[in-house]
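Pasting as-is:
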Amino acid sequence: MKLIDTFPTNQKGNLKYRIGRVFPFGATLDAGGGVNFSIYSKEATSCTLVLFHHGQNKPFIEIPFPESFRIGNVYTMLVYGIDIESTEYGYRFDGPYDPQKGLLYDKTKILLDPYAKSISGRSVWGKAPNYKNPFQHRGQIINEDYLWNGDKPLEIPYSDLIIYELHVRSFTMNKNSNVNKRGTFAGLTEKIPYLKELGINCVELMPIFEFDEFDNSREYNGQKLYNYWGYSTVGFFAPKAGYAASSPFGMEADELKNLIKQFHKNGIEVILDVVFNHTAEGNENGPYISYRGIDNRTYYLLTPEGYYYNFSGCGNTMNCNNPVVRNMVLDCLRYWVSSFHVDGFRFDLASIMSRDKSGAPMIDPPLLDSIANDAVLGKSMLIAEAWDAGGLYQIGSFRYWGKWAEWNGKYRDCLRNFIKGGAEHAPELFCRIQGSNDIYGNNNSESSINFVTCHDGFTLYDLVSYNDKHNEANGENNMDGCNDNNSWNCGAEGETTDPQILDLRMRQMKNMLTILLTSRGIPMLLSGDEFANTQFGNNNAYCLDNEISWLDWSYLEKNKDLFEYVEKLISFRKKHPILHSNALDSGYNNTGYPEFSLHGTCPWQLDSGAPSLSFAYMYAEDSQKYGTKHDAFIYVAVNAFWEGQTFQLPIIPEGYSWKVVLKSSDYGYDGNNSITLSSRSTAILIAQIR
């Protein structure tokens, strides 16, 4: 029997329609065979649904929403007879145009649905758009019918994660990646065995929400420059179609879901890098895409004169703590967790989400409270980049409700400065190694995402190969990108054949990785660092779709020793729960030793407040606490000095003996009493029952 509220009451052309359902927002298939359209606008005076045949410049029909189809500030309509395989949709909004008041309604503009689950217009990466088309980004209607076969988010404990940041296109775009579908979700799927071999159990994907690679595109020296990284979102609910091999068939969502399912089958979580701080509409001179023409004063932070606050550095700032915007962000996160099974999110410039409507920081931002305590997101990992471009720096103060972790920029800067010879940074480094308890408090090391490199800045190899950035290919006269890299080229700028310099660079990379993967907190690696991938000194490759950004997989064979070193480091970390436990006990444990202790070249002798270039730290792994077969002692010796240093090893219980597990360079070892490290090198030793 057909329900009364599914009967159409109106007709235009061949399409019949009636008042729809307010929730959910967006375009969703109705059980009665129609498509339910629902969209919010507080200050519009009217709304029209605009339908296109796929790829056509002119709509085949426009249906104004009757006033009776508006419930509160929501326009809703249920339309029958739409062929979802060949239909694209958008909206026109009419209303007041008064820029000084932030009102920018223009009924000549056709606007993208903020809740669109699929967006056409940029379906093939790098294919030049037709700018004569008045409606560049169009919503498409999808079937949510993917078969997950029992898959769900993995919910790996935070402290057990080894995070690996990567760019979907860059990871496999180079021909020597040896995948069939280069630069796509499908291509990344082919590389899962590699990531599993390395020991990665969590990938963090740089932005995969729909964005426009032609945003601010230009030519420079015969090279096309793009919005390559994608930190300029067009639609928050739609995957980037240009990253899908199957996008010409409208299957980008299923291709991404398959990637996530395959990651999960291999024990690897998926975290999405999300950008809720601004959109692709830019400043006052930017395009009408969606929010600007739907409800500008709701979605953006505006000055009293109607201009955009720019705490993002990208032209506009989203009004994240407005209740409507807050609900949209929550709807988005819930959608990706429920429909795509993602395991968590890294929030770009997350401090913006703590600002109020005037841009001032809030003590208890409702959005952050809502995300941290949301029912659907209850097991999702939440990572904040705890600063923004407006000068709000919240490292250590972003731990709202005990749920959020943070990119620890202080860890990155401290370790970089120490390794290149900054003895004065040693006292801070001791805190960073112990989980940054000076920032996050005792027993909360899983709040700290420890990293040395990320997409933004030098790769690990470039960090030890360049004193200065070399961003000339970006076409900005080398003025873009950070100047404060805390890097050291080891004696020559860029490429060299000098064997001593090359050897030192390899040692320095291993040294940083050794400390990173034996520090308390959650380690994060940048893709390609494990085989010394280079961007040739470019520390801001945001616009480069070429060999500078693409991983060069030939380095995997060339630097196989480094790859194997990282693989062993990760494996060692996983085998010893003391290295990734969140609870660091003070005092002595059942081994009879402190759980963590600092040492100089002589055991137990180190002034932790004094500059130093040579030190060691030891973990005493209590088998009763950590459930291991035997107690173990892990000793990490660090020599950042330019000369060799001999470390006297701590006396350990009878029946135990020291064994070298990993070393970044040659060493001298006399059995069980001392180890001599060459200049600028590290070593890991373990003592277990003979």
